[in-house]
Each structure stands twice: as structure tokens, then as C-alpha cells.
């Protein structure tokens, strides 16, 4: 009989048995037809049942048949215990789904290689050194002239590719104001050939298209964008797109799988690097440098060579830094070049969420362990009720391996059902997390395919889960002593010790999850409650662009027009909103050399302070005739830093740019400190200067961009969006609103990462606490059931309710306290690794440790209450009669 037939017979058991019986009967009939006595014939063949089993074993794959039988039996057992089965599956499903979701995010951001040739040999160049505050940081931006030198120096050892930071910009496919947003990336002409990419339509640009700055205005659409925006229309070839005041011709569509070099961003349009307006500037670091290292090339000599070339470039450039202090120049030149693995690409999203995702992974792993220990206790308790069944199996010849398989198969079915539900949960949870990573107006765009990588992770996770919660109960069940079990006895002590040990572990892990959730929630609360120094409520921001610039008077006239809209009380203009950007320069007081500390600037119009609800501490506001250079209003930190706290009104300072040009300003006012560009940073010395600016010759410089700030009353600011856009277009078509948001959105965006961490940590903490409480309840319930007769006897002898409560909870209280102590130790040992994610929170503060301890204590009391009440309601008479 072939192997395939034996496998097939495993799944046609009833038919196979009928065939065996029919064959047996045919042999009997043949013997009797030959004249043999029927009784003698049956005695010759032997018992029918034994023959059936022997023949059956010869016609099937034995191990597969045993597995099938265990699956059928396990399914019946799961149906028999519907409530326990449902609870186990749901708890495991939540934990498995959370683990899978975090893995999908980590895989998409850090592990999944870019769909390019030689991704395993792809590295990103970066420089490591102190920033302007002296904090060690990694800088991954390069100027194109520096990149050109590095590419030449690496020739023969590596091929370098320039890839700009993907940026969201305005673009149009027709004249007029039909403007939309798109994600644009500049790439070297050699990028597509080196990456081994082929076009889906038309052609991709090459090295010849990237030779002369501004000479080849070509554009390549990504396949993703082509599908979304143009519905795969081949007629898109040859069309023009207006980006940044230039017209580009669409020459092709990229491959299906390639969406750029930044995980978390999907590029819509690729442009040649030579078309970037800053391609020849040495002071604008707008691109990343990616290196495809040749096989066999040693990284360290290559890194050292490129480091020397980059340092030479920056040293030559630093000779013109007349506006920087020697200390700042020295710190700038201390930056060392790095070669970082970039098989998965490189993006700011990776830098921002590397540590948060690691710690989310730690939290979900702890939740998974709690769930597994919880189900392990449940399985252990159920194994006690099946002791007689296991004893009977052993007594009729079942081996230990067979019993282990029986229990593990049942547990594996639980894990598989949980994994299926967990996969459904993950399919919702991972995109949900991604949607909350970036601001709503500019969300993260992260591909989360459910391919073989996710399947393999899910399969391995299911196997690990099965072993974690199922192996110990299976081994314990297989070690049953038949004589003791059949007599009605049991070996409770080892089982109880393991159950209480698992409870202690659950409590320890739960404390750690609660502890870190508390830290993340406190961080979010402190960051959200940071004093801003201005009123962000009811403040609408219209970021506006004029292609050829408009005079300050024209900007003021537009502001007056906007002020006529009903519901608008104040209108002012700024170069950019607070918490959205920055502009820094060295400061000189009394013609002294530039200081080491930089000053930060914002250009504002008269009335801006009032619109922001920032009051003057001294001096006056700007007049329409004030300009920069000329007048300035400074904050308190500026006064302390550069004037040592002395009265600054009437005093002067000079802003010194890197080339050494000095712009003289007289302080005419002082305002309180306010948040500038980032709530995470300390307050910076800020000077507010007039929106009306003069060039080197003293002529008025017409601004090309600015932000109108409108304070509203009586209605939500965003409800005016359509009205304001239409009014600006009708008043002066030269103005284009490129973005519209509220100041409160900018404030909220500062804490997006902290809000997400707090939200997810609290969710996992709630699940962990619920699982731990269920585990406590289950063990206490099992303990009361086991000791009903003892409790009944004690009650008949006059035991008080308090003594019964102590009897029921004594051992588990020790486990809870031991677990809490272990949790405190683990939490304290881990704090230093999470410190960079905290803000304004001291992890060792008593309240941070007391809160999770109190929550655990309350949960333990609530979990113990049903068991104590059950014990108190035991009827001694009934127990004694049963005895």
C-alpha cells in the first residue's frame, strides 16, 4: 500500500473499518465454504476487534492517525468547556494580535528591505557630533557639492546616490489656482539604474538627465501615485506639472514596488537632483547620501576616506564663517562621518519611533507572558479535574509522550484559534497606530503588507505561545500516578506551587506594564500642560505664498481685508507660525565677537503680539514704519542670555550671519518667554523682528511667503476655511493659500509621539491588569473548591469570617507581594533605557511607584472577593454529610 493511500485512510476511518470488517467476513465465509466449522474458523482468525486494530494500524500512518484522534478529542474537550475556552482564546488573541501589530510596524520601518538591487549592501552616510546646545546628535543631511566630492572619492569602492528628504509641496497640472499637495523627492540620475529598477510606463531618468543644474526638467511618477491620481492612464506621459515655480515634463512611471527611500513616506513624484534650486549651494544640506558598497570592500577604510573628504569640504567652508564663534566652529568640525546600514531605507520616522516601538514591543511581550501564564494556570486547574482520565489512559498502556501530545494538541488548537482572531485584530490595529503617528493633515504613509514575513512570524509566535502555556500542564498531566489518581488522591503541592509561582510572575510583569504606562501618561500630561506663553485657542493660520513677492503694504492690505470677515477679531502676519520652524543666527553685543549661544528669530507684523495674546513687559509694539534690520522685541531669556538681566530697552545687538554680515537691531520691547519651535526643547533666546525687511542696500525686500494669523470668536476657526480661501483669491490672485490649520493643531502635534505612547501603554496596561485579575480569581476559585471540606469543618468549629478570608488569601497574598517586589526591581532596572522618552517625569518619584502598586492591590482585592464570599457561604452540614 502506498504512502499516499495510508495518509488518505487516516481521514476515512469509518469507511476503512467497514472495509476491514467486510474483508474479515469474506475470509470467514471462504473458510466455512471450504467445510471448516464456523467456531473453529473464528478461533483460527482470532478476536475480530484485535484483527481490526492490527489491520487498521497497517493501513494508516500511525502518528498521523493518532494526531487526528487527538484533534477530534481536543475539539470535544474545548466544546465541553465553552466559557473557559472562550476566555483563553480571547486573552491570547489580544496578546498575539498586539505582538503581531508591533512586529508589522517594526518590520515595515526597520526590517523590510527596500525593493532595490543590492539592498543588503546599501548604507547611509551621516555625521555625528554636538548640536548648538552641545547635545550629541546624528546629522544625515549633505550639501550637493559635498556629495559630489564624496561620490568621486568613493569611486571604485562604492556608488553614491543622492536622495533628498521627501517633502510635501504644492503642485498644479493646469494654470491658475488648481493647486494640490504632493510628495516630491529629488534623486541622482544614476539612482534608478543602480537600484536595478525598470519603468512601468515611459522611461526613468538617467545620469545624462542629471548633469547640468536646471537643464532637464523631467518628472517620474511613482506607480502608487499614478494609480491613485490618474487611474493608470497612459496618457499622462508628456503632461506638465508645475512645482515650485518650475514646469516639469512627465517622462515615465516608476516600478510597482518602489515608493522612495524613506519608510513612512510614499513619494508621488521623482525629480532629477540637478533640478533642485539649491543644487550648487554649499550651505544647504538638503539631501541624504546613500552608498552601495562593492562586494569585498572593507567599511572602515572607506568610512575613514570619506570622513577625510567631508572634513576637508567643511573646513574650507568654515573659513568663511566669520559670523560664528570659534567654539561653535570647533564643535561643527568635530562631527565624524558614519556609515549606517540602510537596507530598509532611512527616514526621520525611523529616528523618532525606534525607541518607542522597542518599548511597545517590550510591553506587548509582557502582556503575552501574562496571558500565557494565565492560560497555563487554567490548563493546570483543568488537568486536576482530568486526573482520573489520564490515570486510566496510563493504566491501559498509553505512554508519557502520547499523553503530552494529547494535551499539547488541545492547547495548540486554542493557540491557533487565538492566532486567527489575533490576525484580525492586527489587521485593524497596525493601520490604526500608523494613522496616529503624524499630524492628520500629513499622516505617515507606511506600507503594511500581509505577506510571508508576517505569516512566518505569526506561525512562530503561535508555536511559542503553545509551548509557553501548554508544555508545563502537558508534562504534569503525563506524570500522573495511576494508583493514586484512581484511588481518588492527588499530588497537589507541586501543582499549587507552580500555580502560585505563575501568579507571582503575572503580578511582576503587570506591575512593570502599569509602571511604564504611568510614566508615558505622565510624560504626555506634562508635555501637554507646558506653558506656551501665548493663547493657542481660536487662532487660525493661513500659510500663504506669492510667486514673485508682494510689498509689505500689500500684505497689510490683505490682512485688513481678512479682518472684515464676520467672526474675525484680530489679524496679523508672521514669517511662520510658532512651533512650526526656526531661524537662528549668532549674536553680538557692543560689537563684541559672536557669542557661542545662538539667537532665534521670528518676523512679525504690528499687532501680532496682541493677536497671540502676548503682553509687553516693557517698551512698545512695532509700528508700520519699523523694519529689520532696525528694531526688535526680545523675550526674557534673550535678556538674561545677552544682556545679563539688565534693562535692554534702547540697547542694541547685532545678528551676525555665517558670512560675517552684521544686522543692527535696537531693542524696543520685552515680552515673556514663549514656546518657539519645539516643546521638548528648553526656552530659547528669541528676538521678534518686523515683517518689513530691508536688503543690504536698504531697499524693501518683498516677502514671497508669510502666515496670516486670524483670531476668531463665536465659531470654530476652521469653519471659515472656504470663505477665507475664496476671499484671498478674489482680492489678489497672486496670493495662494498653501496650508490652513489652527495654532492648537501645531501645539497638539508637538505631543503626537507621547500621546500615542500613552494611549497604547494604557491599553496594554488595562489588558495586563484584567488578565492578572482573572488569573488571581481563577487560582483562588480553584483553591476554594479544593478546600471546601476543610473550610466547612473550620466553620463548624466556629471559625470567624476573617480567619476564613485569611485562610483563602494567605498564600496568594504572598505571591502578590513577591510579584510586586520583583516588578519594582525590574521597573527600576529598566528606567535608564526609557529615559529619553520621558519629559518632566522622575521615574523614581514615590507617586510613580505607588500608583501601580495601589492599582494592583485594588485589583487583587476585587479578584479575591468572590472567592472569600464563596468560602463564607459554604454549608458545614452539607460538607460533613459528604464526608
UniProtKB/TrEMBL annotation:
One of its GO terms (molecular function) is transmembrane transporter activity. Keywords: Cell membrane, Membrane, Transmembrane, Transmembrane helix. The keyword Cell membrane applies. GO terms for cellular component: plasma membrane. Residues 362-482, 762-875 form the ABC3 transporter permease C-terminal domain. It is a multi-pass membrane protein. It comes from the Bacteria. The keyword Disulfide bond does not apply. It is found in: Cell membrane. The chain crosses the membrane at residues 83-106, 357-378, 414-434, 454-479, 499-522, 756-779, 816-834, 849-869. Residues 86-308, 507-696 form the MacB-like periplasmic core domain. InterPro entries: ABC3_permease_C, ADOP, MacB_PCD, Macrolide_Exporter_MacB. PANTHER family: ABC TRANSPORTER PERMEASE YTRF, MEMBRANE COMPONENT OF TRANSPORTER-RELATED. Belongs to the ABC-4 integral membrane protein family. This is ABC transporter permease.
Amino acid at each position: 500500500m502506498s504512502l499516499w493511500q495510508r495518509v488518505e485512510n487516516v481521514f476515512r476511518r469509518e469507511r476503512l473499518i467497514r472495509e476491514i470488517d467486510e474483508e474479515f467476513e469474506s475470509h470467514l465465509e471462504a473458510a466455512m465454504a471450504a467445510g471448516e466449522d464456523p467456531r473453529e474458523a473464528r478461533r483460527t482468525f482470532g478476536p475480530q476487534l484485535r484483527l481490526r486494530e492490527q489491520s487498521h494500524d497497517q493501513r494508516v500512518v500511525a502518528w498521523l492517525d493518532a494526531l487526528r484522534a487527538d484533534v477530534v478529542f481536543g475539539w470535544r474537550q474545548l466544546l465541553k468547556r465553552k466559557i473557559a475556552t472562550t476566555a483563553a482564546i480571547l486573552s491570547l488573541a489580544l496578546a498575539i494580535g498586539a505582538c503581531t501589530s508591533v512586529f508589522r510596524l517594526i518590520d515595515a520601518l526597520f526590517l523590510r528591505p527596500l525593493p532595490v538591487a543590492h539592498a543588503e549592501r546599501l548604507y547611509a552616510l551621516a555625521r555625528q557630533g554636538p548640536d548648538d546646545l552641545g547635545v550629541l546628535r546624528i546629522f544625515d543631511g549633505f550639501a550637493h557639492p559635498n556629495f559630489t566630492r564624496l561620490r568621486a572619492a568613493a569611486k571604485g569602492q562604492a556608488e553614491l546616490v543622492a536622495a533628498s528628504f521627501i517633502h510635501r509641496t504644492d503642485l498644479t497640472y493646469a494654470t491658475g489656482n488648481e493647486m494640490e499637495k504632493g510628495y516630491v523627492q529629488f534623486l541622482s540620475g544614476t539612482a534608478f539604474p543602480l537600484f536595478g529598477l525598470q519603468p512601468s510606463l515611459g522611461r526613468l531618468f538617467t545620469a545624462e538627465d542629471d548633469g547640468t543644474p536646471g537643464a532637464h526638467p523631467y518628472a517620474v511618477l511613482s506607480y502608487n501615485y499614478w494609480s491613485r491620481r490618474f487611474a493608470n492612464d497612459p496618457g499622462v506621459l508628456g503632461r506638465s506639472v508645475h512645482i515650485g515655480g518650475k514646469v516639469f515634463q512627465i517622462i515615465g512611471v516608476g516600478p510597482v514596488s518602489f515608493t522612495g527611500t524613506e519608510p513612512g513616506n510614499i513619494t508621488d513624484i521623482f525629480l532629477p537632483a540637478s533640478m533642485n534650486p539649491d543644487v550648487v549651494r554649499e550651505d544647504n544640506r538638503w539631501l541624504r547620501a546613500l552608498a552601495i558598497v562593492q562586494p569585498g570592500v572593507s567599511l572602515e577604510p572607506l568610512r575613514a576616506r570619506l570622513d577625510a573628504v567631508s572634513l576637508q569640504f567643511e573646513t574650507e567652508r568654515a573659513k568663511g564663517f566669520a559670523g560664528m564663534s570659534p567654539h561653535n566652529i570647533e564643535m561643527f568640525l568635530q562631527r565624524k562621518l558614519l556609515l549606517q546600514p540602510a537596507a530598509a531605507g532611512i527616514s526621520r520616522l525611523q529616528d523618532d519611533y525606534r525607541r518607542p516601538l522597542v518599548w511597545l514591543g517590550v510591553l506587548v511581550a509582557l502582556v503575552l507572558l501574562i496571558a500565557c501564564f494565565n492560560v497555563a494556570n487554567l490548563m493546570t486547574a483543568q488537568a486536576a479535574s482530568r486526573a482520573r482520565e489520564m490515570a486510566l489512559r496510563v493504566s491501559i498502556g498509553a505512554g508519557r509522550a502520547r499523553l503530552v501530545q494529547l494535551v499539547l494538541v488541545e492547547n495548540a488548537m486554542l493557540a491557533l484559534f487565538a492566532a486567527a482572531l489575533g490576525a484580525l485584530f492586527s489587521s485593524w490595529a497596525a493601520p490604526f497606530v500608523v494613522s496616529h503617528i503624524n499630524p492628520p493633515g500629513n499622516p505617515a504613509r507606511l506600507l503594511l503588507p500581509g505577506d510571508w514575513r508576517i505569516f512566518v512570524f505569526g506561525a512562530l509566535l503561535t508555536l511559542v505561545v503553545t509551548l509557553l502555556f501548554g508544555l508545563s500542564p502537558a508534562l504534569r498531566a503525563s506524570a500522573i500516578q495511576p494508583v493514586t489518581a484512581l484511588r481518588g488522591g492527588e499530588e497537589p503541592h507541586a501543582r499549587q506551587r507552580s500555580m502560585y509561582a505563575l501568579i507571582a510572575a503575572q503580578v511582576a510583569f503587570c506591575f512593570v506594564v502599569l509602571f511604564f504606562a504611568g510614566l508615558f501618561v505622565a510624560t504626555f500630561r506634562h508635555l501637554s500642560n507646558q506653558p506656551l506663553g501665548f493663547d493657542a485657542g481660536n487662532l487660525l493660520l493661513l500659510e500663504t505664498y506669492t510667486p514673485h513677492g508682494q510689498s509689505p503694504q500689500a500684505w497689510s492690505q490683505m490682512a485688513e481685508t481678512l479682518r472684515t470677515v464676520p467672526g474675525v477679531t484680530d489679524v496679523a502676519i508672521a514669517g511662520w507660525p510658532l512651533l512650526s520652524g526656526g531661524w537662528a543666527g549668532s549674536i553680538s553685543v557692543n560689537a563684541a565677537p559672536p557669542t557661542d549661544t545662538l539667537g532665534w528669530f521670528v518676523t512679525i507684523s504690528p499687532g501680532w503680539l496682541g493677536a497671540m495674546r502676548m503682553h509687553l513687559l516693557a517698551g512698545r509694539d512695532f509700528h508700520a514704519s519699523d523694519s529689520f534690520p532696525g528694531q526688535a522685541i526680545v523675550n526674557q531669556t534673550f535678556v538674561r542670555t545677552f544682556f545679563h538681566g539688565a534693562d535692554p530697552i534702547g540697547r542694541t545687538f547685532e545678528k551676525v550671519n555665517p558670512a560675517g554680515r552684521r544686522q543692527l537691531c535696537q531693542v524696543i520691547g520685552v515680552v515673556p518667554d514663549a514656546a518657539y519651535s519645539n516643546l521638548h526643547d528648553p526656552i530659547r533666546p528669541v528676538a521678534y523682528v518686523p515683517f518689513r525687511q530691508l536688503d543690504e542696500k536698504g531697499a524693501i525686500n518683498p516677502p514671497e511667503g508669510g502666515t496670516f494669523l486670524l483670531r476668531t470668536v463665536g465659531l470654530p476657526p476652521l469653519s471659515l476655511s472656504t470663505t477665507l480661501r475664496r476671499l484671498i483669491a478674489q482680492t489678489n490672485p497672486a496670493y495662494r493659500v498653501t496650508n490652513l490649520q489652527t495654532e492648537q493643531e501645531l501645539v497638539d502635534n508637538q505631543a503626537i509621539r507621547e500621546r500615542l505612547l500613552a494611549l497604547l501603554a494604557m491599553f496594554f496596561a488595562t489588558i495586563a491588569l484584567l488578565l492578572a485579575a482573572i488569573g488571581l480569581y481563577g487560582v483562588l476559585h480553584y483553591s476554594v473548591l479544593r478546600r471546601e471540606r476543610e473550610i466547612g469543618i473550620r466553620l463548624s468549629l466556629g471559625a470567624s469570617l476573617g480567619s476564613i478570608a485569611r485562610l483563602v488569601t494567605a498564600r496568594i497574598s504572598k505571591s502578590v507581594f513577591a510579584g510586586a517586589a520583583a516588578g519594582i526591581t525590574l521597573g527600576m532596572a529598566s528606567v535608564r533605557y526609557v529615559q529619553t522618552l520621558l519629559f518632566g517625569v522622575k521615574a523614581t518619584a514615590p507617586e510613580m511607584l505607588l500608583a501601580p502598586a495601589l492599582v494592583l492591590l485594588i485589583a487583587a482585592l476585587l479578584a479575591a472577593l468572590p472567592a472569600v464570599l464563596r468560602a463564607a457561604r459554604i454549608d458545614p452540614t452539607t460538607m460533613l454529610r459528604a464526608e
